[in-house]
Specification:
The chain has a two-stranded antiparallel sheet with strand order 1-2. By secondary structure, the protein is mostly helical. It is globular. The chain starts with a helix and ends in a 5-residue tail after the last helix. Helices cover about 60% and strands about 5% of the residues. Strand 1 and strand 2 form a beta hairpin.
Length: about 290
């Protein structure tokens, strides 16, 4: 993605950007921890990133559609990113018939995935739409949260808090006092802000989004995020806010693409932030294991 965004393969920032996504983001957690939930998100990020690379390259729509169809049966919310590709071909300067053909090429593999998943759900639970989330045996905080609804607007404030504002937890000598001991901070297992695990995303507030592709990216990201934020689960146990990985490849691409449009090189300060964040994340990600 960094090569395509920069347009110049020799741009020295490419290595830093690849390093940033792997080590200075919530992706580090799912890459390190074992578990079916984490593995599914690794696969979904891989498929969505490949689809984005194909779109920025040869634009073979049947390949993009197939990748998004596979993403759909891996994580439904990650497959909602197909909206970006559909908008891209819908606004292309071509005849209406070609647009319809392109949208069909993108959508058909996803529809195949939808049918396959529906059949699988019916075989498992006797319900085409049931994926098991409402049938999980839960206790404690997760069970109480689900009692308000698997998907509900009541969950939006909590998800937004952990996505935008939550920070690490203090390390104390005991569970009563607030006397801190080394190393003083540990990761919050309920999640931490995007701006803690990836503070370089703060630069998003300094960029311009006047062009059509930027608006398409923003709309697609908002579409996926709005669905995720209504889910009761939040993501515990996790490093960072791991559900953001469903749209993080597009958010990351938006950042590096528009940064490159405004600045010829990655600033030394930007690189330092990436390196310091990666070191901090490598420590914090290990502390989450204490809560498993």
């Amino acid at each position: 993605i960094s090569l395509r965004a920069c347009s110049v393969s020799s741009w020295p920032a490419t290595g830093f950007l690849a390093f940033a996504f792997c080590f200075a983001s919530a992706f580090l957690g799912v890459a390190i921890y074992s578990g079916s939930w984490y593995f599914a998100q690794v696969v979904a990020v891989f498929l969505v990133t490949l689809a984005l690379l194909e779109y920025l390259g040869k634009k073979r729509l049947w390949i993009i559609g197939t990748l998004m169809g596979l993403a759909f049966v891996t994580r439904v919310t990650a497959a909602l990113n197909i909206l970006f590709f559909v908008m891209g071909v819908a606004v292309a300067d071509t005849k209406l018939r070609k647009k319809i053909t392109a949208v069909c090429a993108l959508s058909f593999p996803v529809l195949v995935g939808l049918v396959a998943l529906a059949l699988y759900n019916h075989a498992r639970f006797g319900n085409w739409l049931e994926q098991g989330y409402s049938l999980q045996i839960l206790d404690g905080a997760a069970a109480r949260a689900r009692s308000y609804g698997v998907m509900s607007l009541v969950h939006v404030p909590g998800n937004l808090f952990y996505f935008l504002f939550a920070g690490p937890l203090p390390v104390t000598f005991d569970n009563i006092s607030q006397v801190l001991k080394f190393p003083y901070l540990r990761a919050n297992p309920w999640g931490m802000s995007l701006f803690i695990t990836s503070p370089y995303f703060l630069y998003l507030f300094c960029l311009k989004y006047d062009d059509l592709i930027s608006k398409q990216l923003l709309f697609s990201i908002a579409d996926v995020a709005s669905c995720i934020f209504t889910y009761y689960g939040i993501g515990n146990v996790q490093f960072g806010y791991r559900y953001s990985l469903d749209f993080l490849p597009f958010l990351f691409f938006l950042l590096i693409r528009n940064y490159r449009n405004e600045r010829p090189e990655l600033s030394p300060g930007f690189k330092k932030v990436i390196l310091v964040t990666a070191l901090t994340n490598c420590y914090l990600v290990l502390t989450v294991l204490e809560f498993e």
